[in-house]
Amino acid sequence: MTGAAHTARRHHGNRHGRSEEARRAVLEAADDLLVEKGFAGVTIEGIAARAGVAKQTVYRWWKTKTDILVEAFLQDLAEDLTPPDHGDLARDLRAYLRWLSFFLGRTDAGAVFRALIAQAQHDPAFAADFRARCLDRQRALDRLPLERAARRGELPPDLDVAAETERLVGPVYYRVLVTGEPVDDDFIDGLVDAFLAGLR
Questions:
Q1: Which one, of 103, 86, 79, lies nearest residue 169 by Cα?
Q2: Overall pTM surpassing 0.90 (yes/no)
Q3: String of b and e for 86-109 (b: at least 16 CB within 10 Å)?
């Protein structure tokens, strides 16, 4: 490789690295500002200032603040909410439901999710995009403990995994998003015990 080619490749790599750092900084800034100011208080200008990048840099990747927040949530989802796999259905369900309630109710990523859910209630176009990009992936994660158990032979072969998943996680979402009631260990144990009893 010639010296010029090596230098060009190195500079290209540096630009790529800086670009990725800037992108991550924007996503983190959007998360932080949403938690601090709420959805209405988040602006492209504020995100750019917090991330330390030019506003034009933000618009290079996203058209709206909602686009940024959706991508930030998807990144958080991939990093934080993969269900544990202990090889035992009861243990897996208890662990996942506890972490789901914590994730939704007490993390910055959960705050982003709640804000996006609220925005979807009065923005039909966004709601359709949000369901396609976020909720389908979230539902797939929610189904994973039962799907794993089915593959291990712990569940009846004719079990409707999608419906049973909704029965398990629905009360958690309801308490976190609607009533604000606590989702404690006793509540989760009751959900899991009732589900397992129904299989007998």
A1: 103
A2: no
A3: eeebeebbbbbbbbbbebbbebbb
**Alpha carbon separation from 185 to 42, 87, 97, 174 (Å, rounded):** 35, 21, 9, 16
Kindly give the confidence (pLDDT) of every residue in the chain, 200 residues in length, as a single tens digit, with 9 standing for 90 and above.
Answer: 555 444 444 444 445 567 899 999 999 999 899 888 988 899 999 999 999 999 999 999 999 998 998 899 888 887 777 888 999 999 999 999 999 999 999 988 888 889 889 888 988 988 998 888 888 889 999 999 999 999 999 999 899 999 999 999 999 999 999 999 999 999 999 999 999 998 87
Is residue 11 helix, strand or coil?
Answer: helix
Cα gap 123→91, rounded to integer Å: 39
Q: How far apart are CA 145 and CA 47, in angstroms?
A: 36
